[in-house]
């Protein structure tokens, strides 16, 4: 009986030790050699698990992501294309998500991008996220042919040229993506080293700071009422934190406008170089022309702003103060201004009710690469056409019932003649006309508008 108890006790101790080891995973950093990690819960694979050590000799890029993250899907698509068409088995990408298997299966079976992917997917992950902690996705971990972590980056570094550089054995020195910081804490505090004789530092009642791009930190925005106190005192303030954001996005927040819904056609840039504000017609600098390096653009054209105000200050006054700080720091004047501008105006009399075909997604015109055509309600059509780069503001002056859908192809949204060809059969017409529209105007100090 004693022998049995001793054996059982030994087994129990071994189990407890293994559990403790699993729970005390030490995050890996650039330069670390990967331990023996077993990757399980695999899809798109003949086996359900693989040892990381079995992949030596290959460049492994682990993309920590989610299936609904747009940049994650685009990067997965890019990696799959590079694996299939350029690097072959030398490149081994792995898409890792903590989401459940059912959600990933839906993505792989029904999503236009997911259906095309042929590399390894990991669902329900609880291990790799501990080895590589992060806040924002996608989060790219580069492991070289010797099993060493050589880089931890955002998705902008995933390029054919960078992958080739690593496969050639060239050293890389990219900024480490670091977003596990406490964005609820202040960006700046008083320097205690300047006052070594003071035991209790004075409280910062209000402050603001503006800086250029911070390498390795993901873009983020935070508006926090009653934020975490700086020196342990009770908080009665509001904290604003903008990290690595383009100028236009900063101004949109100051005017209480969401950059995700603001139409690019309602932006006027009275500046010497528009590419510094809105590249390729986009507000955020994403989707740059092939000749433009996204990493370089971000470093040169994104900024950080951090401030605290007393909570008793009305929100509109806070925004007004932020606006003044942006103008002063950037040497520009940003404002919302009603102007008479050239527009596309939708009008006409609907001929008939064309029913919605349920098998076609209603948002099918939104995905540039994989859904080039589909049915859309008029409101969505106007919304999207207003956001096509280089289009003028698109306004609707016709009332169309919500249930009415029109068939539209994505390519016609930037051409008024093709757009009319598609809409005329419904009794609708798009005309060029002047209208008064509220525009976001950003003017550089000293700017002279040359005809």
Q: What is the C-alpha radius of gyration, as a whole number of Å?
A: 27 Å
The residue fraction in helices comes out at 10-25%
Uncertain residue ranges: 1-22, 229-234, 358-370
Say what the CATH topology of the largest domain is: Glutaredoxin
Strand segment tally: 18
Largest sheet: 6 strands, mixed
Number of DSSP helical runs: 10
Residue-averaged pLDDT, rounded?
Answer: 81
CATH architecture group name of the largest domain: 3-Layer(aba) Sandwich
Secondary structure elements and pairings:
Layout: H1 2-23, E1 38-39, E2 42-43, E3 50-51, E4 59-64, H2 70-87, E5 91-96, H3 101-110, E6 120-122, H4 128-131, E7 139-143, E8 149-153, H5 160-167, E9 207-212, E10 220-225, E11 237-246, H6 247-254, E12 267-270, H7 294-301, E13 302-310, H8 315-330, E14 332-348, E15 373-377, H9 378-385, E16 394-396, E17 405-409, H10 416-423, E18 428-444
Parallel strand pairs: 4-5, 5-6, 12-18, 14-16
Antiparallel strand pairs: 1-3, 2-6, 4-7, 7-8, 9-13, 10-11, 11-13, 14-18, 15-17
Helix pairs in contact: 6-8
Characterise the protein shown here.
The chain has 3 domains: 22-167, Glutaredoxin (3-Layer(aba) Sandwich), CATH 3.40.30; 202-330, no CATH class; 340-438, no CATH class. It contains 10 helices and 18 strands. The model is unreliable at 1-22, 229-234 and 358-370 (pLDDT under 50). Strand 7 and strand 8 form a beta hairpin. It has helices at residues 2-23, 70-87, 101-110, 128-131, 160-167, 247-254, 294-301, 315-330, 378-385, 416-423, and strands at residues 38-39, 42-43, 50-51, 59-64, 91-96, 120-122, 139-143, 149-153, 207-212, 220-225, 237-246, 267-270, 302-310, 332-348, 373-377, 394-396, 405-409, 428-444. With 451 residues, it is of the alpha+beta class.
């Amino acid at each position: 009986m004693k022998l049995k108890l001793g054996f059982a006790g030994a087994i129990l101790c071994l189990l407890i030790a293994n559990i403790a080891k699993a729970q005390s995973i030490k995050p890996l950093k650039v330069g670390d050699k990967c331990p023996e990690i077993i990757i399980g819960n695999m899809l798109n694979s003949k086996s359900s698990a693989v040892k990381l050590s079995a992949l030596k000799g290959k460049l492994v890029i682990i993309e920590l992501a989610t299936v609904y993250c747009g940049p994650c899907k685009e990067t997965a698509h890019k990696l799959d294309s590079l694996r299939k068409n350029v690097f072959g088995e030398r490149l081994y990408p792995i898409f890792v998500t903590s989401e459940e298997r059912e959600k990933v299966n839906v993505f792989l079976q029904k999503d236009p991008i997911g259906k095309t992917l042929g590399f390894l997917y990991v669902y329900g992950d609880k291990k790799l996220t501990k080895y590589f902690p992060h806040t924002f996705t996608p989060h790219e971990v580069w492991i070289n042919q010797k099993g060493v972590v050589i880089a931890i980056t955002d998705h902008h570094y995933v390029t054919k040229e960078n992958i080739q550089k690593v496969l050639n054995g060239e050293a890389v020195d990219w900024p480490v993506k670091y977003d596990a910081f406490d964005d609820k804490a202040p960006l700046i505090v008083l320097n205690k080293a300047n006052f070594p004789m003071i035991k209790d530092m004075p409280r910062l009642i209000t402050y603001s700071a503006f800086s250029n791009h911070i390498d390795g930190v993901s873009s983020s925005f935070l508006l926090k009422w009653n934020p975490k106190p700086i020196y342990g005192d009770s908080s009665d303030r509001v904290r604003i934190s903008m990290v690595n954001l383009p100028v236009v996005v900063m101004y949109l927040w100051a005017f209480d406008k969401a950059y995700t819904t603001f139409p690019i056609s309602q932006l006027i840039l009275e500046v010497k170089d528009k590419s510094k504000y809105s590249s390729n017609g986009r507000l955020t600098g994403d989707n740059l022309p092939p000749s433009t390096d996204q990493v370089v653009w971000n470093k040169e054209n994104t900024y950080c702003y951090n401030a605290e105000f007393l909570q008793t200050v009305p929100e509109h006054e806070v925004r007004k103060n932020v606006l003044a700080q942006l103008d002063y720091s950037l040497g520009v004047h940003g404002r919302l201004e009603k102007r008479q501008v050239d527009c596309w105006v939708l009008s006409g009399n609907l001929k008939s009710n064309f029913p919605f075909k349920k098998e076609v997604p209603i948002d099918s015109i939104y995905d540039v690469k994989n859904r080039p055509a589909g049915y859309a309600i008029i409101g969505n059509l106007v919304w999207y056409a207003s956001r096509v780069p280089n289009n003028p503001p698109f306004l609707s002056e016709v009332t169309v019932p919500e249930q009415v859908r029109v068939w539209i192809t994505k390519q016609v949204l930037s051409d008024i003649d093709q757009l009319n060809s598609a809409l005329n059969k419904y009794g609708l017409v798009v005309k060029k006309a002047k209208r008064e529209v509220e525009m976001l105007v950003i003017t550089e100090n000293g700017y002279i508008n040359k005809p």
